Amino acid sequence: MKTIQFSFTPVLGAVLALLGSLPAQGTIIFSTGDPPATASTIQFNDPGAVTAGFTVSGFPSFSTEAWTLFDFTGLELLNTPASGASRVEADDGGFTSLQLQAHEAVFEGISFNLQLVTNTLSDGLTVEVTTLSGATFFHDYGSNVLGNGANRFYIFTDSPLTEFIRTVQINTTTELADVRQIALVGLVPEPSSLVLIGAGLALLAFKSRHSLRRHMDRSVQPDNRSV
Does 210 lie in the same domain as 105? Predict the structure, then answer.
């Protein structure tokens, strides 16, 4: 059975997002290279992961973030090989489009490594990001940015705790062999999910206080039985 732990830090971040993200003026930084050491890698070997279909899903490696699935959706059938690095491939050997999105969650940054089927000088990469505040950011990395080596890309918000990434759309002009080493930074619940969680906790607290009050009322009632 998968053990899931919950940390107060994501909840705090989501509260701040709920209070301040809608008017956020942050932007998205499109860079290359490795993510921070605090990044949580997506894994596909845990119970509940979806390893084949037009959408495949994995869990963040950190136990404090493993309360949500992370989806990869393509225009063709995908799979996640059981051996080697955690990665997403196409059944027919190559793909050019992939959308990345967490279940009822948003994040501050994402990193991934793109591998081409065949290295060419005409390859191209574009990435489109939608954010919690409803903004859309588009970046063209240009030609000859990919190759059969370590092609790490790191995309992140410049306003942590006030602006978050909701979806990432990757498009290439030549076929990708796989997307691997996917890692997240600053994963938090969607504010709408947090509201539901808060409502549930409030209901439990109300029921607990009501039950305690009834117990106390019974304990102070006089004993009118005859001696």
Answer: no
Band of pLDDT at residue 66, cut at 50, 70 and 90: confident
- Do 50 and 134 have their domain in common? yes
Instruction: Tell me the residue length of the chain.
Output: 227
Q: ∠ at Cα 32 (164, 140), nearest 5°?
A: 80
**pTM of the predicted protein model:** 0.74
pLDDT tens column, 26-60: 899 999 999 999 899 999 988 888 999 999 999 99
Residue 151 DSSP SS3: coil
Q: Residue 74 and residue 211: Cα distance in Å, rounded?
A: 51
CA 50 to centroid of chain Cα atoms = 15
Q: Do the domain assignments include residue 211? A: yes
Residue 148 φ then ψ, to 5°: -85, 55
What does R_g of the chain's alpha carbons equal in angstroms? 23
Helices H, strands E: what count in the chain?
2, 13
